[in-house]
């Protein structure tokens, strides 16, 4: 697939488009499944100002949004972080989650155990590699799903009541990471209602009701409900790339 994600932010005086290619590798590949480039334009005249590494921006901004959701929605005494998946997003989520939060234990599971072992040996802190998704999830307070799964790999009867889940994979209407029980028995938050109802198989196929967009919680028009079991379904928004690209460009410009 080749995706085009244009966005304009008047507040940031920024106009961008992200070009992203997505190839589903049937065998483990050294080439990432997602590759991206962000073009930053001058919104006053359309001049191209910068070409940025969209893969880095995508990884960082996606994890940053998950971290915001987690800060708002996770239980008060969260001690165990679980990451399902060991690709690019696993690394970016690990980095920001261990920087912002204090977990006593971090667990990881990946379909290919070799990748999970490689992840555990390359990050800065101790990580427990689990032999099954259920082992990784059981008792976890915060769960991050960053997989290429097309059918559920996380099941409601495994999940600790009151846990918070960031569901980042399964970005197509016929793909799933979470089962119906988890979707229907959790309070569901999304980045965009419109996107979730057309792009997220977890939302569409389960028929789960969306409680709020994350922006509504940030603005104070909807409560966070951290005492409940919560799911944040992240699909990503083009404006996140725009804000991130402008931030990088401004920092680079100041350095020059």
Give a verbal description of the structure.
With 256 residues, the protein is α/β, with parallel strands linked by helices. The protein folds into two domains: 2-56 and 239-255, ornithine cyclodeaminase, domain 1 (2-Layer Sandwich); 58-237, 3-Layer(aba) Sandwich (Rossmann fold). 35% of the residues lie in helices and 25% in strands. The chain contains nine helices and twelve strands. The strands form two sheets. An eight-stranded parallel beta sheet has the order 7-6-5-8-9-12-10-11. A hairpin with a 6-residue loop joins β3 (34-41) and β4. The model has no long low-confidence stretch (mean pLDDT 96). This is Ketimine reductase mu-crystallin. It is an enzyme of class 1 (oxidoreductase). Pfam families: OCD_Mu_crystall (PF02423). Its EC number is 1.5.1.1, 1.5.1.25. Homodimer. Binds the thyroid hormone triiodothyronine (T3); T3 binding inhibits enzymatic activity.
Gross morphology is globular
Major pleated sheet:
8 strands, parallel
| Count of alpha/pi helices | 9
Q: Tell me the strand percentage band.
A: 15-25%
- Uncertain regions spanning at least 5 consecutive residues: none
- Amount of helix: 25-40%
Query: Which CATH architecture of the largest domain would you pick?
Result: 3-Layer(aba) Sandwich
Mean pLDDT over the residues: 96
Distance between the termini: 36 Å
| Strand-pairing-aware structural class | alpha/beta
Q: What is the CATH topology assignment of the largest domain?
A: Rossmann fold
Q: Helix and strand string, N-terminal first?
A: EEEEHEHEHEHEEHEHHEHEH
Superfamily (CATH H level) name of the largest domain: NAD(P)-binding Rossmann-like Domain
Arrangement of strands in the largest sheet: 7-6-5-8-9-12-10-11
Secondary structure: number of strands? 12
What's the number of domains? 2
Rg over C-alpha atoms, rounded to the nearest angstrom: 18 Å
The top-level CATH class of the largest domain is Alpha Beta
């Amino acid at each position: 697939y080749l995706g085009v994600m244009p966005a304009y932010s008047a507040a940031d005086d920024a106009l961008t488009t992200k070009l992203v290619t997505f190839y589903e590798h049937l065998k483990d590949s050294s080439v990432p499944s997602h590759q991206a480039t962000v073009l930053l334009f001058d919104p006053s005249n359309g001049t191209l100002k910068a070409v940025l590494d969209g893969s880095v921006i995508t990884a960082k901004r996606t994890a940053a949004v998950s971290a915001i959701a987690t800060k708002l929605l996770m239980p008060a005494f969260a001690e165990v972080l679980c990451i399902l998946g060991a690709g690019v997003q696993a690394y970016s989520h690990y980095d920001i989650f261990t920087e912002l939060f204090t977990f006593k234990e971090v667990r990881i599971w990946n379909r290919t155990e070799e990748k999970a072992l490689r992840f555990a040996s390359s990050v800065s802190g101790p990580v427990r590699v689990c032999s099954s998704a259920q082992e990784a999830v059981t008792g976890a307070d915060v769960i991050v799903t960053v997989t290429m799964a097309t059918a559920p790999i996380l099941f409601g009867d495994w999940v600790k009541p009151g846990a918070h889940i960031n569901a980042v994979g399964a970005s197509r209407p016929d793909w799933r990471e979470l089962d119906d029980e988890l979707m229907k028995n959790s309070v569901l938050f999304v980045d965009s209602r419109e996107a979730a109802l057309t792009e997220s198989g977890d939302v569409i196929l389960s028929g789960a009701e969306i409680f709020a967009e994350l922006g509504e919680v940030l603005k104070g028009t909807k409560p966070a409900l951290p005492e409940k079991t919560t799911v944040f379904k992240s699909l990503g928004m083009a404006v996140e790339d725009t804000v991130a690209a402008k931030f990088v460009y401004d920092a680079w410009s100041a350095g020059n």
